[in-house]
Input
Amino acid sequence: MTEYKPQQLDKKWQQTWTASKAFEVDLDPSRPKFYALEMFAYPSGYAHVGHVRNYIIGDVMARTKRMRGYNLLHPFGWDAFGLPAENAAIKTGTHPETSTLDNIAHMKGQLQRLGISYAWSREIATCQPDYYKFNQWIFLKMFERGLAYRKRSTVNWCPSCNTVLANEQVIDGKCWRCGSTVEARELEQWFFRITEYADELLKGLDTLTEWPEKVVVMQRNWIGRSEGARITFRVADSDQTFEIFTTRIDTIYGATFGVLAPDHPLVDRFAAESADRVAFRERVARFRSLDREARLTGAIEKEGFDTGRKAINPFTNEEVPIWIANFVLAEYGTGAIMAVPAHDDRDYEFARKYNLPIRIVVSHGDQTPASADEMTTPTTNYGVLVNSGPWNGREAPAVIHDMIRDAEQRGIGKGEVQYRLKDWGISRQRYWGTPIPIIHCEKDGVVAVPYEDLPVELPKVTTFTGRGDSPLAQVAEWVNVTCPTCGGPARRETDTMDTFVDSSWYFLRFADPKNTELPFDPVPAAYWMPVDLYIGGVEHAILHLLYSRFFTRVLRDVGLVNFDEPFTRLLTQGMVLKNGAVMSKSKGNVVDPDDMLQKYGADALRLYVMFVAPPEKEVEWSDSGLEGSFRFLVRVWRIVDHWAETVGGEGLPESVMADCTDAERALRRKTHDTIRRVTTDIEERMHLNTAVSSLMELVNEIYSFSEGTAHGAPTRGEPPAGRVERPQAIAALREALDALVLMIAPFAPHTAEEMWTMLGHVDGLAAAKWPSFDPEVAKADQVEVPVQINGKVRARVTVPADASEDSLREVALSNTIVRSHTSGKTIRKVVIAKGPLVSVVVS
Output
């Protein structure tokens, strides 16, 4: 018997695939296309098993589709810009380009050793000028359309390092590098006007029927469409005003105080007019320095202080105090709220903490406390208005429309639709990113870099200190340029782009990765797009996917694509855990795939990761489970090796199958039924674990058939020692083994390729077709049917596969075990359910 040496097979077949360009593709309008894509990788230097699970899932799907006759595009690339490489440069002095390219080379080798069937000729890296040139091209198209613009915005500022910090570099309000307290500072920043597409992005979610519902809900909530009213509050004894947006204008008579964000425009004016300017500004500065994400999510204790100023409630005409609080942000809504503590959880908590007035204005009958003093929790549902002047007795939400119309007639407000979604700030004061293609001229202002001058390449920066201005601003020979409009002295923009820009259109670049004139040609994009199956972590469910949907629509309006949605089907794969925790280098619980490949080979690892759980579920790593997958492959190898010489060569004519024994017929039925189940599990349900289970059952059936058919006594656990002479048995075995090898190929391609050759097939599996099944052959002669009594399975009966409901009922009720459970009892109901299943109800 030939020994199974997976490491040798890995090397042999990977070299063969590379030499033959087995996975490279071109446009072929005569064939159906399929575009399978896993989210490209950040080149961190290594890939553990938790990283590569989604690549293996994608490869199983890609290989299956290729065998099913699709023209299959399965590319890969690298999300190569980003903060981690720059942070490493600050710590070690290694240039980001050097570390990034070294990491790419290492991770690419890992993926190739796993046998992932990528079209490597289409590989991209976003840090290369031939890619980020078109980040800049797209930016300029947005700039021309008013979708890219500049405005002042709040950033994290470290006063010690004298630099802007990313959110990830702020730890508990301190600088990651020096520990100084981080301040909020306003700088000119570049934005993409994604809100221009908010309605369209929201409506488009209704078409994404093959996305996980949880992801659709997350995106819908992030966009956050709200219908309400914008109401103007006047500051007492002044000509100053501020606006609030509310979806519950019906509660405005219960607004007992107003709250401004620490960075609201009025705050600095109030501070300047305060009797104790220093204390006022110190409290504001502390609120501004708090982590904005924590302020937004409520993950901080709510704090505030009274400004001493009053605002006029435009509906009651009463004065209410104006407070500043840490839980209100200037960039969300209007940066100010009317606080209605009786009917809002956050406002109620704040009011109780600072002993602020609470007024009930919505009644729910007997459930409403007689006074605010008796209230222990706010009531947030609609109800009948009370303490609301002329609106008393009216019910919300019906009254809301009339109250908005009243506000509009009196000039104190207007109806408005707002979105939680805000414009996308893309400015980063970093080096390792795409330079923004803008020039600043004293005479002509903001000037776009001409298209013919793209790409604006990153200059070489040799020293990374993490201190001072943006790294690009320190390269004088790069910054100082001539204005393309007037020819006078000018300066380049020194901000770089958010790396989400890189990932918002890379899937389109794969359609035409060598194009030097355009991001991609519309013809190949129209052929390959949209992506048929997109696989990646749920942590990207909001921003990456939302930005990709936005970019696709912009490029549609530019004229490069003719569709709206980039991804038809989305799979968010589950995480891989070890010792109950997600694999992480910091936790020391990672599993290096190279170690597993050296011990068991690529196919055992691939098979185990697919078998242990459904793709969307978490996986608890187990070395013993991996060893079990290896043993299964050895078992498959042995049975194929044993019968290869007997069944190899040309197939027998179909007429031979006419005179089969029961055993031969049973093997054929199992073969065809397995093809049916595995095909459905992979293509329709993506239940890759149950597909592997079905293959294991088929292997058991082949062993059982072999032991019962061959002459000579088999050794336990080994293939039979004898031979088969009946043509029908040979034909049934050949059919079963061929189908087994073809179906196991997406999971264990190296082993399958070798076994396919052993079975006498000249062409490799890359050109092989997926097996087909005959429904008549797959149909069972008899089926085993479980019988439930009062919900518990008590017996199983065997009946003809085409048995009628009446005969099935009769056989079930006459079964000895069933009779023992029903004797002396009244049979109330007998239901024949799909499956089939017999359910008996007795009392």
Notes: The two ends are 61 Å apart (CA to CA).
